[in-house]
Amino acid sequence: MEQISFISYQNKEDVPKNHLLSAAKLYCRIWEEEPWNEKWSIEVASDKLLGVLSKEGATLIFCLIKDEVVGFTGGKPIVAEELSGRVNEKLLNELNNVPLFLVAEIGVDSLQRGKGIGQKLLLKLIDTANADCDNLRFILHTDITAESAKILYRKLGFKDTHSVDLSITNHTYWIR
Ligand SMILES: CC(C)(COP(=O)(O)OP(=O)(O)OC[C@H]1O[C@@H](n2cnc3c(N)ncnc32)[C@H](O)[C@@H]1OP(=O)(O)O)[C@@H](O)C(=O)NCCC(=O)NCCS
């Protein structure tokens, strides 16, 4: 039986270099897949992962098997204004003055999918954020064709607002 563990970080300085490198390699592999087709260098991927921890209340979580990162998620508290130019006026007004937490990243190694890791990662992120703030609403955006992600989000109570991301028009915003 593989030894799976989850580690949460709140500060960039606490993320061990070897785990960051492993996560950055995974990040590059995952976002090269359909429908994302994104190419990132290891350096930029590392910056993006650590960039999640740019605010108080932010959390980055890695799932490890032995010393290899096989999954990651992360997010941070935001205010509705930060979504200006991304969501339409109606949604922006609805979210005004609502305590919000943006799920910024989630990915699981293709060889480890379907084993509950994505769900555990997202639940841990939600639990950690909820421990810091009452009545939090969680928001994320995803590609309209990202079927596995949409199944996971629905299972955890997210609903598609069908509000299209104004700068990535094949993405819609989901809220929980
Ligand atoms: C989305 C993703 C993180 C899910 O990770 P995962 O570890 O495979 O998810 P889980 O195993 O926890 O699955 C959660 C639930 O969704 C279901 N599910 C996940 N992928 C599925 C699929 N392709 N088909 C059917 N059901 C699926 C699982 O069966 C499970 O439901 P269950 O508990 O009722 O069986 C993973 O597919 C991934 O990394 N995809 C590429 C990156 C990505 O799309 N990220 C989201 C960007 S917004």
Short précis:
By secondary structure, the protein is of the alpha+beta class.
Can you give a write-up of this model?
With 176 residues, this protein is of the alpha+beta class. It has a single domain, classed as Aminopeptidase. The chain has 5 helices and 7 strands. Strands 1-2-3-4-5-7-6 form a 7-stranded mixed beta sheet. Helix 1 crosses helix 2. The longest helix is centred in the N-terminal third of the chain and has 16 residues, at 17-32. The model has no long low-confidence stretch (mean pLDDT 96). The structure holds coenzyme A. The site of coenzyme A has 19 residues, from strand 4, helix 4 and helix 5.
CATH superfamily: Gcn5-related N-acetyltransferase (GNAT)
Q: What global shape is seen?
A: globular
Average of per-residue pLDDT values: 96
Q: Total domains, how many?
A: 1
Query: Which regions are unreliable across 5 or more consecutive residues at pLDDT < 50?
Result: none
Largest sheet: 7 strands, mixed
Q: Report the end-to-end length measured between terminal Cα atoms.
A: 34 Å
Helix content: 25-40%
Biggest sheet strand order reads 1-2-3-4-5-7-6
CATH class descriptor name: Alpha Beta
Radius of gyration: 16 Å
What's the helix and strand layout?
Elements: E1 4-9, H1 17-32, H2 42-51, E2 59-65, E3 68-78, H3 89-95, E4 100-108, H4 117-132, E5 137-143, H5 147-155, E6 159-164, E7 171-175
Parallel strand pairs: 4-5
Antiparallel strand pairs: 1-2, 2-3, 3-4, 5-7, 6-7
Helix pairs in contact: 1-2
